[in-house]
């Protein structure tokens, strides 16, 4: 748990952080966001005393940080930054081992930990442990940066735009991976970003800052549905209904879907399809093969005559997707309904445009 | 003519042209005594006909092969040819000297002429070019680079070159030569060690403190512009006064002339390259890397030892290399203020107008500088961390 009490930071005459107080619960991700110069990075850096507060107190797990030696404090806090800052002269393994080495862990324990962390961030230890930073892609370097921050298993993790310096596709992958890791490890995380989508996606709570002050500190849902003032309203933007969709997992909205197999007779198809416009076609293992349009049924003698084929990857979304992804897929393919499958491509159900509409109802009320 | 269509290797062809041109000036000089002006002898008069022809032939081979240097086998042959030219020139010079001196007075000398020196330079240009084309094979590279030199040293050591004037000068002063050689190395070693440590400390200070940056660079830049002889001279007066005022200093060997001012001057000259490179080396460490180190709980000392130093080391040592090579040359001047070293032979030779005695000082200085350079380059390479050099482990 992290608690800031009346924290202020002045640089000469400018006030970077102005009497800031907030609390981050154990195991939660708190994202600091705001326009540049709002003091979010300064706030982050005061927590591990890279920057000393001018006044106010910061507590980690109930302990006043100013009572500890800065180096000792920092070794107990994970730290990942946008520019990563991997040591170019050390291998990936030695980079990850930095804090354990500072803590004098024994070699075997360090080696085991390095391997564990590489696996955690999805990199093959045999392949990556002995590489040097200049041999890594941007995304790989960022992952090593996160692994390094997690090395000594700190309960608190500070991240300053950790996915900032990579292309959008890689960023999304890294975010997905981070969400998975966080679900597993339940660290108390404070993350700075300027990417609202990232904040909405990853945060348990978002702290919107402006000119060194906290404007609103709330869950993403609350922020999107009840912006505290015009600043937050404008900051969140007019597309907040869409943004909110990325917070909503698809499964609660999935409904039973009609399906037939390839060797069904046309009469059977007719029976299944009586009340709907289309029907999904699956094989005996219920793996999705394509769909039938109701309009084409009368002219056909068998399913294979009129099936519109498509692999699950092409036409379906997985049960892990968000409503936003489902909507995007529907709009992209001009469908009003798409199938939902599991990882093996087995049909779980379907979701319709109407379901998504219902889910977002009431978001866009003015403040 | 296949050669006309091929594009020659520019370095090799330059060497070969210089080599062919070197056949024109005199190769040996026959002098009635070591300080008299003598008669210059052309390649024909210097060597026997087969000897002269073989050198011309080898140069022609080098010339034509420089059109086909991309072929690794021909590059190797070219390198071998160039080495053979160097070896043959010296061997035949030694033999010819014996023949030429046979009927002369005991004081007569045979010196190496412009032609033979030019040929030696030209062979090394060709060797350099050939070496570049030899790809990854270190065995052939080293063979091509060093075999000629090694054989010439062997010829010298086993007495084949004893009749040449420069070797005579050496043999007349062998003990003194060894003494001055060691002294020269000592002057350079002591001053570069002290200058290196001092320079690194000043460089670190300049990076750490904004107030120190300007004065440190002002001092080390300004001293670099003082001519070496002037700096040696400038130190004589204050050091004399010191040593007369404090007898203890005099007992320690600190005097206005001799080693003390020489070493002090050499230290001062060593400072700039070391200070500058230390400063650059530390400044080029990415701030993000230092920030990450700090954020993970490294102390200032740990950041310096584990991050900044290894990353700056190659650049710092590069500065020490420059200082070393420069000091080997500058130390020659130190002989003028009584510090000794190989410069002693140069100034003796200048005083006596004995050109071979000058060479006896100058040649070893050049060789020392090259050896110092090679050693320091090796150290720089060893100190460069793998991840920084960009090599795959």
Polypeptide structure, described:
The complex is a heterodimer of chains A (367) and B (393). By secondary structure, chain A is an alpha/beta fold. Chain A is built from 17 helices and 17 strands. In chain A, strands 6-7-8-3-9-10 form a six-stranded mixed β-sheet, with helices on both faces. A four-stranded antiparallel β-sheet of chain A has the order 2-1-4-5, with helices on one face. In chain A, strands 11-12-13-14 form a four-stranded mixed β-sheet, covered by helices on one side. In chain A, β15, α16 and β16 (337-341) form a beta-alpha-beta unit. Residues 363-367 of chain A have low confidence and may be disordered. Chain B is mainly alpha-helical and 393 residues long. Chain B has two domains: 2-171, no CATH class; 174-389, MetI-like (MetI-like fold, Orthogonal Bundle), CATH 1.10.3720. Chain B is built from 18 helices and three strands. Chain B has helices at residues 2-5, 10-21, 43-46, 49-65, 72-101, 114-132, 138-157, 165-172, 174-208, 210-225, 228-245, 247-251, 259-283, 287-295, 300-330, 343-352, 355-383, 386-389, and strands at 28-31, 39-41, 109-112. Chain B has a three-stranded antiparallel β-sheet. The longest helix of chain B is centred in the middle third of the chain and has 35 residues, at 174-208. Chain B starts with a helix and ends with a helix. The interface between A and B is medium-sized, with 33 and 25 residues.
Task: Estimate the global geometry of chain B from the Cα principal axes.
Answer: flat
Secondary-structure class of chain B: mainly alpha
Rg value of chain A: 25 Å
Count of distinct strands of chain B: 3
| Dominant shape of chain A | globular
In the CATH hierarchy, the architecture of the largest domain in chain B is: Orthogonal Bundle
- Interface with most residues: A-B, 33 and 25 residues
Instruction: Tell me what portion of residues of chain B adopts beta-strand conformation.
Output: under 5%
Give the spatial strand order of the biggest sheet of chain B: 2-1-3
Helical amount among residues of chain A, as a percent range? 25-40%
Which secondary-structure class do the elements of chain A indicate? alpha/beta
DSSP helical segment count of chain A: 17
Indicate the CATH topology of the largest domain in chain B. MetI-like fold
Order of helices and strands of chain B: HHEEHHHEHHHHHHHHHHHHH
Overall average residue pLDDT of chain A: 88
Please report the number of helical segments of chain B. 18
Major pleated sheet of chain B = 3 strands, antiparallel
Q: Rounded to an integer, what's the Rg of chain B over CA atoms?
A: 26 Å
